[in-house]
Write a structure and sequence with these properties.
Layout lengths: L5 E10 L9 E8 L5 E7 L10 E7 L26 E14 L5 E9 L2 E7 L12 E8 L1
Antiparallel strand pairs: 1-2, 1-4, 2-3, 3-7, 4-8, 5-6, 5-8, 6-7
Length: 145
Amino acid sequence: MVNPHFDDTIKVIGVDADGKKYDKVSRVQAKGEESDMHIVLDVNSQLYPMRAGEKYRMVLSQTLNEDGSAVVAGSEGSKKSLADRFEYVMHGLLYKISDDKNQSGDVEVAVYISFGGLQLLMKGAPVKMGKFKVDQRLFLLLLKE
């Protein structure tokens, strides 16, 4: 069974709050409902438009294989895949982890992942960020609820 790094329902708070910078990309601000994570995510808005107020299931996992085994090149179609149950999937690299203080003075951990130029920033309590390590390759999966 897959043990994801992150699995939560997120609620979109805003889209392109700073104005639209690219024709096919939107920057989405969201909040994790159970995890209370603050999320900023770039998505290809032409393929997967997201709107304020909508809810999505978001998963970050090291593998797409439902049995938890590593993804091996050339094994496409031979195993059940998490991607079969989601609408939008990206693969990326975690390149930075930093500690910040939030407005109330509590320590937050910020995780930065690049999906071929599309960025993800997640900020949350250190206890929820223990699985994340720099140079991890992760899959991001989204499904509208």
